[in-house]
């Protein structure tokens, strides 16, 4: 039998509801509550063959493994978060045993406490804005695949000019979109306790055909959620060149960093 | 297998993996565990994982306990 460790999902304040132990973590293992100095870590047992150093090194290269673990991690954090304010832990936080978990809680007690204070009563909302890229069909439908040989020179020049003009329009459109995204962010931040700009995702990863111009996270108090949602719907209403994607309420992943305390 | 069908079907139709990883790797309380990850080659999260690795390493170096999961 191989060794087991503790995979940690989130930290909450004691006392933890007994109902939390009805949940399950990775690989169907029951959730455990590890309490220390008024904080409770939500954990579950994992096989160190799979989640130890060597296992992780190998498994993190496997995208389907990573996805499964990320989704279970998220489900558990959501489950805890719906019951009580929770400071989510980063993916793949693993300790060797409960004593090691307590040692970490002890070491970071004040920082975690400050995080819980800050996020209590709030949730994270994500907003992404895409600039739709016009389908090339509309602009290129009358464009011959190659200029006729007779007029190759002139047609070629016209073609290049048109291409330059299109590229220019696109660039202006994108600059405009970045400005629009910035003002949306300013507007939404007014309704939020805190906000954070996340990196713009590579389109290869998001699979979205549009150009991402805003990827932001907002920490919103529950009593201002409706206002936030309404504002996010109004802010670019009627501007069909933009697609606004909103998700939440989520556990406050982007606002639980210990260094922000 | 989903142990939280409600979370899957009602609360969130399907969260995109990239949005999830944006948050699960880039943020959250950094309560580094005892496991050291020293290598990873997934393009999707390479940068994030490198950051994760660097912070876990730094934490391990800081930690005097020397309790490290072994290969």
SSE order and pairing:
The complex is a heterodimer of chains A (261) and B (71).
Chain A (H helix, E strand, L loop, with lengths): L3 E10 L18 E5 L2 E9 H4 L1 H7 L3 H19 L5 E9 L2 H10 L1 H11 L2 E10 L4 H5 L11 H38 L4 E4 L5 H4 L4 E11 L3 H10 L7 E9 L11
Antiparallel strand pairs in A: 1-3, 1-4, 2-3, 5-7, 5-8, 6-7
Chain B lengths: L4 H7 L5 H8 L21 H17 L9
Fold and architecture overview:
The complex is a heterodimer of chains A (261) and B (71). With 261 residues, chain A is an alpha+beta fold. Chain A has nine helices and eight strands. In chain A, strands 2-3-1-4 form a four-stranded antiparallel sheet, sandwiched between helices. A four-stranded antiparallel sheet of chain A has the order 6-7-5-8, covered by helices on one side. In chain A, a hairpin with a 2-residue loop joins β2 and β3. The radius of gyration of chain A is 25 Å and the shape is elongated. About 2% of the residues of chain A have low confidence. Chain B is mainly alpha-helical and 71 residues long. The chains are: A alpha+beta (261), B mainly alpha (71).
Summarize the structure.
The complex is a heterodimer of chains A (261) and B (71). With 261 residues, chain A is of the alpha+beta class.
Radius of gyration computed on alpha carbons of chain B: 16 Å
Morphology of chain B: elongated
Count of beta strands of chain B: 0
Uncertain segments of chain A of ≥5 residues (pLDDT<50)?
137-142
* Proportion in β-strands of chain A: 25-35%
Unreliable sequence segments of chain B: 5-11, 36-47, 63-71
Overall average pLDDT of chain B = 53
Number of helices of chain B: 3
Q: Give the integer mean of the pLDDT values of chain A.
A: 87
The end-to-end span of chain A amounts to 41 Å
**Main sheet overview of chain B:** none
Helix percent of chain A reads 40-55%
* Spatial shape of chain A: elongated
Task: Tell me what portion of residues of chain B adopts beta-strand conformation.
Answer: under 5%
Radius of gyration of chain A: 25 Å
Report the major sheet of chain A.
4 strands, antiparallel
């Amino acid at each position: 039998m191989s060794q087991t460790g503790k995979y940690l999902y989130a930290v909450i304040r004691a006392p933890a509801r007994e109902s939390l132990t009805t949940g399950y973590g990775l690989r169907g293992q029951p959730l455990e509550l590890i309490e220390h100095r008024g904080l409770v870590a939500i954990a579950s047992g994992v096989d160190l063959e799979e989640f130890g150093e060597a296992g992780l090194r190998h498994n993190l290269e496997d995208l389907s493994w990573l996805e499964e673990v990320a989704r279970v991690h998220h489900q558990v954090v959501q489950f805890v978060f719906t019951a009580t304010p929770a400071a989510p832990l980063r993916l793949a936080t693993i300790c060797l045993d409960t004593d090691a978990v307590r040692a970490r809680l002890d070491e970071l007690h004040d920082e975690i406490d400050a995080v819980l204070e800050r996020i209590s009563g709030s949730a994270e909302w994500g907003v992404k804005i895409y600039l739709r890229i016009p389908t090339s069909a509309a602009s290129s439908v009358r464009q011959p695949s190659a200029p006729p040989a007779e007029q190759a020179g002139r047609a070629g020049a016209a073609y290049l000019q048109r291409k330059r003009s299109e590229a220019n329009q696109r660039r202006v459109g994108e600059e405009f979109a970045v400005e629009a995204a910035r003002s949306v962010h300013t507007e939404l931040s007014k309704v939020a306790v805190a906000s954070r700009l996340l990196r713009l995702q590579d389109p290869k990863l998001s699979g979205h055909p549009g150009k991402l111009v805003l990827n932001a996270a907002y920490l919103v108090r529950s009593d201002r959620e409706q206002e936030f949602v309404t504002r996010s719907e109004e802010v670019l209403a009627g501007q069909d060149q933009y697609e606004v994607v909103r998700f939440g309420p989520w556990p406050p992943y982007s606002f639980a960093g210990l260094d922000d305390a | 297998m989903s142990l939280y069908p409600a979370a899957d079907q009602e609360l969130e139709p399907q969260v995109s993996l990239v949005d999830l990883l944006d948050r699960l790797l880039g943020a959250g309380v950094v309560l580094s565990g005892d496991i050291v990850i020293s290598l990873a080659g997934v393009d999707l999260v390479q940068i994030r994982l490198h950051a994760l690795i660097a912070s876990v390493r730094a934490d391990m170096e800081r930690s005097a306990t020397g309790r490290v999961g072994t290969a």
